[in-house]
Amino acid sequence: MEPCTTEWERDSEDTPVFAVVSAVTEASGADPLKLPPLGRAINPDALNELFTGRSESTVAKLTFQCAGYDVTVRGNGEVQARTTQDN
Known about the structure:
By secondary structure, the protein is of the alpha+beta class. The chain has 2 helices and 4 strands, in the order βααβββ. It has one domain (4-86).
């Protein structure tokens, strides 16, 4: 199965956290309110701060598991969610 990809932009409402939820929602086809809280997988505030807290992110990418998906957040604004068995 192809990964679902979304993007976020610095200085916009589309934060890394928003993009993660969007990617997992798209990949799973589930209602975002029915997904487990993102805070069970990663600290949402820390995730946003890591990628948007500086003028330029020094983090190339971060990968973690959330709701049965491997989620990769990249410093260039790309977020991918793919099922864990696809890896």
